[in-house]
What we know:
By secondary structure, the chain is α+β, with helices and mostly antiparallel strands.
Amino acid sequence: MYGVYEPSPSEWVREQVEAYENSGGTEGNTLRDTGLPVIIVTSLGAKSKKVRKTPLMRVTENGSYALVASQGGAPTHPQWYYNIVANPESVMIQDGPERFEVSVRKVDGEERTQWWERAVTAFPPYAEYQLKTDRQIPVFVATRRP
Length: 146
């Protein structure tokens, strides 16, 4: 991945990414005080081409990961959504101490339904977030590259 890392403008995101990476995934690895696990998704800015890092809920099945663009049920997609759409082959995941490149694709139909159900099981507030917005919350599947 190329580009210069630009930390998030959000303080809690910056602090979580820093704790996660500096500890090799042993700290900052849950969503605040929920105890629910997160991963760090590294993407390339759609316009800036700067490296961006985002903590997302850990939703996994058979070695693949769901990346849920919920933004807490906001009416717009999170910025990382546009980064991944623009640069789907420039994405990395850190899950605990392990970092790896992934290929990412947006899922629809029955496949999205299955991944959405997994996501809601892993993080029940996703269901509430969907009720708060008119947009269908996008779901991507990230698969480790060989």
